[in-house]
Structures are given as C-alpha cells and as structure tokens.
Amino acid sequence: MTRIPDLAKPVAIALTRCGKTFADGTRALEPLDLAIDAGETIVVLGPSGCGKTTTLRIIAGLETPDAGGAVLFDGQDVTPLPIEKRNIGMVFQSYALFPNMNVANNVGYGLKVRRHAKPEIASRVAEMLALMRIETLAERHIDQLSGGQRQRVALARALAVRPRALLLDEPLTALDARLRDALRLEIDQLLRRLGITAIYVTHDQAEAMALGDRIVVMEHGRVAQVGRPRDIYHRPATRFVAEFVGTMNRLKGRVSGGAFVSAGGAIPWPGAPPQAREVAFRPEDARVADGPGHLNGTIAAAFFLGDRTRLFVDVGEERPLIVEASARSAFRHGQAIGLEVDARGLMAL
Amino acid sequence: MFVAQLAFTLSVCAFLIVPVVLSMLAGLTENYLVGLRSGLTLRWLGAVWAGYRDTIFLSIAIALACLGCTLALGVPAAYGLAKCRPRLARVLEELLVMPVAVPGLATALALIITYGGYGRFRTSWTFILVGHVLFTLPFMVRSVLAVLLAIDLNTLEEGAASLGASFWQRFLHVVLPNCRAGVLAGALMVVTLSIGEFNMTWLLHTPLTKTLPVGLADAYASLRLEIASAYTLLFFVIIVPLLLAMQRLSRPRSAARHRKAE
Amino acid sequence: MRRSLATPSTLLLPAAAFFAAFFLLPLVRLFLVGGSGRGGFGAYASIVTERGHFLALIATLALSAGTTLLTLLVSGVAGVFLQRNTFAGRGLLVAVLTLPLAFPGVVVGFMVIVLAGRQGVIGDVSAALTGERIVFAYSMAGLLMGYVYFSIPRTILTVMATAEKLDRRLEEAAYSLGARPWQVLRDVVIPGLKPALLSAGAICFATAMGAFGTAFTLATRINVLAMVIYTEFTLQANMAVAAALSFVLGAVTWLVLAAARTAAGGTVAAAG
Question: Which of B260, C173, C220, C270 has an alpha carbon within 20 to 30 A of B246's alpha carbon?
Fold first, then answer.
C-alpha cells in the first residue's frame, strides 16, 4: 500500500457575497455565500451556464469576484492573491498537460517552479506516480497517453505540490462511461485517504451523489440548495433540484378524504397538506401492483435493461410515469397496469 | 476525367518549371544564341560572383537582421495577441497585415517622404531593413499565433499558474517551447521573403546598398543574357532550398494537426 | 485571467511602436504630400481625370481581372485534382506548383523574356513549326503570362486547403439523389469552394494591382499604375502625383483584401 504523501494541513474555504459579472455584461454569478469545512469534499452541481465553473475559478484565483465579494482561506482574505500564490491544486477539464514535457516533468513542474532541489523533485514525482499507479508512464509524452492516463497525470501534478485544497473542474466529462465509473471510484478513495479539502464541479448528478460530503446545487448563477446527498435527494428544496437530481414523477390533482386524487387514481396519504395541487415522487417509491392499484393506466413503453425493466405508464398526466419493475415479468405495450405508491415518498410541489 | 485533369495539371507544372530550367540553363551555356551546342561553362557564374558578391552578402545579411528584428518584435506580439480578446486580436492583426496588402511601392514612397531627409539613415542598409521588417513581420506573427491558438494557450498558462509559476516562468517553460514550430516556419518565411523582396527595395536602395533582386534587375536591363541568367541561377540556388525547407516543414505539421484532432 | 506584469499591451508595444513610426506615420505623410502639389487634393482625382493615369488604371484593372480569372480557373482545376487524388509523384507536383511562391516579379519577368522574348523558346518553336517567330513578352499577353505565373502558387495552396475540408458526403448525397458529375460540380463542389475562390481571387487581384517588378523588367509600352507611379517619382520628380496615386492604389488593394477577409472569415495571406 503506498504511503499517503504528507500534505499541507487542509484549509477551510469561505466565499462571502461573491458575484461575477463579465466584461461583456453576462451575469454569471449572483452574490453567494458558501462555507466549506477543512477536509470536506464539496460537489458543485448544476447544468451548463449555472455558474459552477465560475465559482470554482473564483476560489482558485483565476477570476476576481465583483466588488464586495471575498474569498477566505482559514479566515484569511485571499481575494487579492493571484492563483500562483494560493497554493491550491487544480485539475482542468482538458487537463492542461504541457505538451512540451514528458509525464515526469509535468508532475514535477510545480516543484521546479518552487525551486526545490532536483533529487527532492525526483523522489516526490516517483511518490506521486506510485500513488496514481502510473510509474511506467514517467518518460512518456503527453500525446501518447489515453484519456484516463492523462487524468491521472493531471491529478498527480496537482497533488505533488502539497496543496491546501484540490479543485477539480469536471475532470471526468471527457471520458467514456465505463472509464468514468472506474475513475470515479478511484477519485473517491483518493480524496478520502488524503483528507484534503476538495471542490469538485460536475453536471452529472450521479457523480455528485457518489463523491460529495455535501452538494451545492446551482441554477442560473444562484445556489438552489446545499446539503448532504441524502437530503438533496429525499428533500429537494425546489422543483429544479427535485428534477435535476434523480428522476421525478409528477401528478396533478387535489387532496380529498385523506388521499391525493388525480386523473389516474387516488393515493392514500395520511397527513397530506390540504392545499397540495401537484405532487412528485421518485420511481423507487412506486411498484407494480398485482391487478388494480392506487394509480391505474396503460403501458406506453417498456425497456428491458437486463437487470430490471423500466416502464413508462400513461395515467392521464402530461407525461407518463416512470416505474421500475423486475426483469423477469414480461410487459406489453398497451397493457393495463396498476401502481402502488408509498405515501412517504410523496412531495408536495 | 482523371487523365484529362492529370494532363492539365502536368501542363501547368510544365508552365511553371520549364522557364526556371531554361533560365538556369541559359546561365550555363557558352553562348545563348547558339544554344546548348556551344557547350556548358561556369564562366558566367564566375563573372556574376566577381561582380555581385557583395550584393549577395548584403542580401543575406539584411535577411538575417530582418529575422532578428521579427523575432524580437513578432514573438511577443503573437503572445500578446493570443491573450487578447478574439475581436480585438483580429482588428490588430488587420492593422499589422497592412504593409503586406499595400503595394511595396507605396510603402517605400511613404518611407522616403518621411525619413528621406535623414541622410545617414537614408543611405544605410537599415533603411532597407525597415521596409523588409514591415513586410515580413505579419508572417512571423501569424505563424507563431497560429501555433499558440492551436495549443489552447490560456488553459496551459492557467495550469502552470495553478502550480505556482510566475509570468516569466510560464513564458519560458510553457509558451516558448510550444511555439517552436511556429517560430521555425515563420523564420523560414521571413528569410525567404526578405531575400526575394524587390518592389520596396528598388525604391529604397542606393548604389551602395543593393540587394540581390536589385542586382538582378540591373543585370536584366544592361548585361548579356548569359550573365543575367547566371545571376538568376545563383538566386535560385539560394532560394530554392529555403522554399523546399518551408514545404517540408508544413507537411509534418498537418500530420500533427490530424493527430491532435482525434 | 488575472493580468500580471506583462499584459497584452506591453507585449504588443514594441511591434506597435515600430509599426506606428515606420508605417502609419509615413502613410499619413504620404497622404498629405499627395495633396501638396499644384492641384492640391485634386491630385487624388487625377486617377480618373488625367488621360494617362486613367488609361493606366483601366489597363491595370483589366490585367488584374484577367489574371484573377485565369488563375482561379487553373488553380481550381489543378488544386482540386491534386487534393483528391493520390498517386506516385503527387507530392512532387504539389512541390513544383508551390515553388515559385517567393520569386520576385523581376525574375518572373526575366523568365517571360526567356520564354517569349526576341530570343525566346516559344519563338523558336513557332519559327520551326510555322516559320513565323512569335514574340509577345513585351505585350499585354506577356504581362498576363507573368502575372499568372506568380499567382498560381499563391492561390493553389488556398484552394487545396479548402478542398481538403470539403465534405465528400454532400457530394455522395447529391449522387444518391441522381445528380450527374457536372451537376454535382456546379451545385455542390463550386459552392463549397466559394470562400476559398473568393479569398484567393481577392489576393490575386490585389497582388496584381500592386505588382511592379514584372512590369518593370518587361518595360512594356503598356503602362500599369505601378509604372506610372514609378516614372512620376523618379523621372518627373513629381512627388505629389506619385504620392497621391500610390496612396489611392494602396487604399484600393487594402480594401479589396479587407472585403475578401470579411467575406471568407479569418485572416487571409497575401505576399507581395
């Protein structure tokens, strides 16, 4: 097992009133506040254009926040400091590996720039390459590397300088699905072992839920919700969060007689908020009934996914409901079907 | 269809190369009017060398000085343009390209009108150098700029900065090494264009500061066809290797571009 | 990105200073001198009002237009052919076609004399075949041949670069819909090449307008604008007229190139 390299003490990061308007007038970020604990992994999640990368770049020092905004590292105001002086490690979406240097020189670049002695650089580079399990690539040139290998080199390079925090800008987006899954696991283990403060930007909600201690969901330059993955998933604060993270089924109707009544049927719901006009629930809170159920409709489409079947059920709403069923049953298009919904999973919108 | 197009292309090639070969041959024949039957000789080349050796050296010296100037002015300018906003960069490039768009005659006249009064400057080879630099600078800038833009310079610089590199460290370790190809291609272009420049130089020169093409024009006007041809032959001997090197350079680059694209 | 010590402005400063001192300033002075002669700023109209100048303008325009059309035709055919076919010796042909890129106009003029002058090869061949010696080096035809000679290398590279980017699938789609080769050429290939043809044509036109060396060597009876400017300057010492004419010539060529750049998008290379 490779020795965990000694890192600088992880830093607590805070953003106060940081907004960003670009020179051409685009308002990328509304003034936001964010507090990140030392050693925590925060995932900033949102669709493109929501301001997540801008937030990351402000923390890094590549962008300055508008007047009134401040970035604090362990309580110290680092807003005037450029990125060169903040001692953070950054992994870019395109990795930004230097084409004129081989892997070893790339990884050692941060140390070279800090004027460390050659033998010290060499041993640290070897250590980082071993940590990322790419020792054999030391002499290779950048354009001879695959996507996954470049990713590892980028991580090794960022960590070699003992940064106070690690910033990652959609590092897995450029990779294919299978590689992404494998690397996601590695990154998760790495971040846990290192105990470093990490800020990870992504638009992939599965990634966010897997990696984050806390998730910051952003939309249109604002923070929609901050919380642990479970809280975000089970108690989304806004409709946007509910629909961005995981899949949501929606039903229109009204509360009557202890149940939510909609076009497709009535779901018994003790303690239902009386004014609820629309509810949402996740596919996993509904199941196929034997015979008629709370909701009844017809199958609009059935996709056999190998380990389960995904059903799209038409119950008279705008869009069909999504439910998952066992792979062993066969379902036909147009077949009548009943669904039972667990009321504990209902959320009033 | 293929054969017709091939024949057409071959005849175009012939149109371009036959006069070159003929001119070179004329410089080696004893007597052009008699033709090849009069035998081959090197005496015309010898006569040219004796009479125009200094001119040739001056041309080469100016070309090298031009290279130095375009490197000193052009590489930082390309770097600056790569960091500018795209629209501003395009406007600045437009301006820079003007000396190429405007006829050499006009540029030379403008220079003479403005600086012709400074006697020592006017009669020195640096006067010609200024014209050459104006004309070749855009090529160096564009060549280096193309490479810098292709490598996504800004992200690389941010990467280096995130590791703690200062401006100079970024320039020396990341920017310069990566635009080497552009500098080389630009350098070849600058030297080649400078050696062959005539339109400006004809007006800017003085009897003491003649360049190769100026000497050629003299020879065409006043000397025997054989000597003029030999002089032309000498010119080809100097310039064709440069042109071939430029062609050789541009081919592997497109292969590298294909690799990067995938 | 945060600005550090050497912002774009400091990096561009040396080149900008050089450019301002040795190009912008002189151009301004050129413009002023152009208006300082006997006719005042009316000298700028002399290009159309004075007969000699006007004839030269027409001759230059005709020559440039003719050169452009011929060159585009030749480069178009040869360029597309070379881009699309690979065969032994293709590289050699491309090398030959682009070699004369940096030949100065004087050398091209000399080669025209070698080919079509009084002792020229074409004359020899025609004398052997028909008994009559064809000499056209010193006429419009000779000039045209010279101009086409140095224009082909410049344009063929642009054409080949664009031909490379043409999407063959568009042609395949046309064929699949039943179009015949000449229709595909007219409706798919040529429109696809249009930006290249436009920009290459503009360079060709602008270069021909401002060309001097070839006309100088051929010392023809035909006066192109560049020669008029030259004679006004050296033989007549008529600075104002020379300045005015050259400023107009410069403005016209620059405008043509700028228009082509905006039409084709991106920067376009012109070598004098």
Answer: B260
**Under 8 Å between Cβ of A97 and A154:** yes
Q: Which of residues 36-65 of A touch C (CB under 8 A)?
A: 61-64
Q: Phi/psi at A344 (nearest 5 deg)?
A: -65, -20
Interface contact flag, B259 A143, Cβ < 8 Å: yes
Q: What does the pLDDT read at residue B253?
A: 44
Residue C125 lies in a domain: yes
Q: Which of A57, A84, A87 to mutate to test the interface with B (most CBs of B within 10 A)?
A: A84
How many contacts does B have with C, using Cβ atoms within 8 A? 259
User: By the CB < 8 Å criterion, does C1 face chain A?
Assistant: yes
Give me the residue from B9, B102, B134 closest to C81, CB to CB.
Answer: B9
Q: Report the residue from A85, A92, A143 with minimal CB separation from B158.
A: A92
Query: Does the residue B229 lie in any domain?
Result: yes
Mutation target vs A (from B149, B163, B171, B179; most A CBs, 10 A cutoff): B163
- Where is A84: in which H helix or E strand? none
> Among candidates A193, A160, A188, which has minimal Cα distance to A172?
A188
Query: What CATH superfamily classification does A13-244 receive?
Result: P-loop containing nucleotide triphosphate hydrolases (3.40.50.300)
Question: Identity (one letter) of the amino acid at C178?
Answer: G
Q: Please provide the size of chain C in residues.
A: 272
pLDDT tens sequence across C61-107: 899 999 999 999 999 888 888 888 888 888 788 888 888 888 888 88
Q: How far apart are CA C265 and CA B38, in angstroms?
A: 55
Please give the model's pTM, rounded to 2 decimal places.
Answer: 0.77
Residue with tokens 């106070």: A164
CB within 8 Å: C96 and B13: yes
Closest alpha carbon within chain C to B233: C107
Q: What letter would DSSP give residue A341?
A: E
From 2.40.50.140, 3.40.50.1460, 1.10.238.10, 1.10.3210.10, which CATH number describes the A249-348 domain?
Answer: 2.40.50.140
Which residue range is the domain that position C78 belongs to? 55-264
Q: Which two tokens stand for residue A309?
A: 């079947």
Q: Which of A316, A341, A323 is nearest to A259 (CA)?
A: A341
Q: Tell whether C196 lies on the interface with B, counting CB pairs under 8 A.
A: no
Rounded to the nearest angstrom, the minimum Cα separation between B162 and chain A is 6
In terms of domains, do B13 and B63 share one? no
Distance CA B141, CA B79 (A): 9
Here the ipTM equals 0.80
Closest residue on chain A to B178 (Cα): A100
Please tell me whether residues B87 and B160 are part of one structural domain: yes
Q: How far is C81 from chain B (nearest CA, A)?
A: 7
